[in-house]
Amino acid sequence: MPTGVHIRDARKQLFDAAERVLLREGPSALTSRAVTTEAGCAKGVLHRHFADFDGFLAEFVLDRVGLIDGQTAALREAAGTGTVAGNLTAALTALFESVAVAVVGLVGARDELRDRLREAWPAGVPVLTEAAIMIGSYLAAERELGRVAADADVDTLAAMLIGTGHLMFADRTGVPPEAEAVHKMVTAIVTGVARNPLR
């Protein structure tokens, strides 16, 4: 098997294993042994592809942040369809029901990881920052279509939606909020600027 394919597969296998451990047991359970055990491989496999465990975690976080790109494209394509609140509700629910909340907790729990991430991500918290950019981009597209007020501060609205959404979904072990609760929150934030029915 060519080396490039083998490395890519090993990385994906390890990243997927890290995600499963993180979602199931939380940031404190995420160790190199837990990851390799979950992946079903020897511990040396991780160290063959990454200088150390914090380097692995930094690349894992950036890989998971990259998954938001697909969500960003889908949300932008939704501009002009449905309702603004409905589109935002769906996007926020998909984002926060993914590994996003757990990744934020992981970044908050590990100082060395935050230091590593600053090399590639100089400002903000990965995932939350990228998510705010995604929501701001969508709101800007809706503003261009006239479905959001021309004077709406889409970056501030995006930050409010992401921050409030994160608070709603932050309890990893609790029951996630129902769609109606997320829709109510979104509606409260965008009612003043949305130019279309919210339902």
Question: Would you kindly provide a brief summary of this structure?
Answer:
By secondary structure, the chain is mainly alpha-helical. The protein contains 11 helices and no strands. Helices cover 71% and strands 0% of the residues.
Task: Explain how this protein is built.
This protein is mostly helical and 199 residues long. The chain has two domains: 3-49, Arc Repressor Mutant, subunit A (Orthogonal Bundle); 63-190, Tetracycline Repressor, domain 2. The chain is 71% helix and 0% strand. The protein contains eleven helices and no strands. The longest helix has 23 residues, at 3-25. Residues 31-50 bind DNA. This is TetR/AcrR family transcriptional regulator. It comes from Sphaerisporangium rhizosphaerae.
Draw up the topology in text.
Layout: H1 3-25, H2 32-39, H3 43-49, H4 53-66, H5 68-78, H6 84-96, H7 100-109, H8 111-120, H9 128-144, H10 154-169, H11 179-190
Helix pairs in contact: 1-2, 4-8, 5-6, 5-9, 6-9, 6-11, 9-10, 10-11
